[in-house]
Amino acid sequence: MILGSTGSIGTQALDVIRSHRDEFQVVALSAGSNQELLGRQASEFGVAPERARCAGEDPRILEEFASLDDVDVVLNAVVGFAGLPATVATLRAGKRLALANKESLIAGGPVVAKVRDSGGGEIVPVDSEHSAVYQCLRSGTTSEVSKIVLTASGGPFRGRSREDLAGVTITEALNHPTWSMGPKITIDSSTLINKGLEVIEAHELFGVSYDQIEVVVHPQSIIHSMVEFQDGATIAQLSMPDMRLPIGLALGAPERLDQAFGSLDWASLSELTFMEPDRDAFPALDLAYAAGRAGGSAPATLSGANEVAVEAFLNARIPWISITDIVAEVLNLGTGNISEVEDVLEADRVARERVERVLQNSF
Ligand code: MG
Questions:
Q1: 0.90 cut: is pTM over it?
Q2: Distance 310 CA to ligand 1 centre (A)
């Protein structure tokens, strides 16, 4: 089942399934609001009309679909925090969650951990970096890990100073150099908050401490992340920047797809380079580390505030540089604890309200 089937990840997942029709069967689809494309997908993949629905009209269908008896794997590719109920419902039902919706894991960390431990479900990450780590971890045990190294392309603004970034446009921010992704995540990757959110995601998924997670800029986006083990061996996962690989693995793991969506051409791949992220030009990275270390509702606040700030930028209400400033301002107002889904919802609601207040007062 695919939640968010008309988005970037959803359509690529259907592409994977289209070429592996005897391995996977689609039994339900949900979209945000694109009824027309959803209808075409449903008829192509033989999904009953009552099982192809727009969550924009009724968000409860996400949970309902996640609990269907004939569903083995739920691909959660909903954009943003709205994916949380489906994440919880899938794990509670003891199913595999192919997780592309990182916000639900980040905001709801303590809640998701609880239902994952008690419900018998498992999370297989779709995010390319975490899929890479998941693959690298096959080389050793979690207790042998000395650190996880997440790679970052650096986004469209790599190499630019903070002053230089004051006037960047929406079009520039949407122009990612190596990955083709949806608008929210593309903007997140231009501020580097995406990498910060992925640091929190790695902490939640693999149970490693924040001190053991490092970020390195790797502009070619060929190494998708690495794991260094205690004997000094570093295992890296390399492939073309194509989301269909991690999607296919999340659907079929531990088995791999029998087909590559583009393999590496070593003759034309002249160099792989690495550099430190510029933490002054892209303060969102350290902001995310701080929120992750603070725990409780801080990651939910970070993620919720960021969603609203990104939307404000995409609607031309604020300059790019203010996205991170606003998130920092909202985090500074303080955060609390989380033990139930309601606490996560409340933290998210408060964060959004605070951003709106900042927007009204300062812009
Ligand atoms: Mg990623």
A1: yes
A2: 17
